[in-house]
Amino acid sequence: YVKEERDFLDRNYEIVFADGAKIEFNDKGVWEDVDCQFGEVPAEIIPEAIRKSINDNFAGVKVLSIERNRNNYELKLSNRLEVKFDKDFNIYDIDD
User: Fold this and answer.
1) C-beta contacts of 25-33 below 8 A and 24+ residues apart
2) CA of residue 91 relative to chain centroid, distance
3) Could you tell me if 62 and 40 are in contact, meaning their C-beta atoms sit under 8 angstroms apart?
4) Kind and range of the H or E run holding 54
5) How far, CA to CA in Å, does 68 sit from each of 24, 43, 84?
6) Which of 33, 36, 66, 73 could form a Cys-Cys staple with 24, CB 3.0–4.6 A?
7) Could you list the pLDDT tens digit for every one of the 96 residues in the chain?
């Protein structure tokens, strides 16, 4: 299903697929949050520097969700860790 959310000046869109995967877009059509609860986030949407860092530091884990805003990216991994990257794609926080 597709849902539109409106705030004062902003619109956001949420798409939920039959398999439970969810994507949220801003009013410009740019994704802000991708959550693949039972699968893996497509590698093509993860910035290359982040993909490389995940592969180097967490070999064999899957990215289950990714969220981005102006200043950072937050990923949830299949090993139950949450990894945060700054706008220059450097890890600045790891949380379990």
Assistant:
1) 31/68, 32/67, 32/68, 32/69, 33/65, 33/66, 33/67, 33/68
2) 15
3) yes
4) helix 48-57
5) 10, 15, 10
6) 33
7) 999 988 888 889 999 999 899 999 999 999 999 999 889 999 999 999 999 999 999 999 999 999 999 899 999 999 999 999 999 999 999 998
Written as six digits, the tokens of 63 are 């990215």
The CA-atom distances, in angstroms, between 44 and each of 3, 10, 50, 75, 93 are 24, 27, 11, 15, 23
> 26, 29, 33, 28: which is closest to 72 by C-alpha?
33
Interatomic CA distance for residues 1 and 36, integer angstroms:
15
- What's the Cα-to-Cα distance from 73 to each of 2, 4, 87, rounded to whole Å? 24, 23, 7
DSSP 34: E
pLDDT tens digits for range 60-73 = 999 999 999 989 99
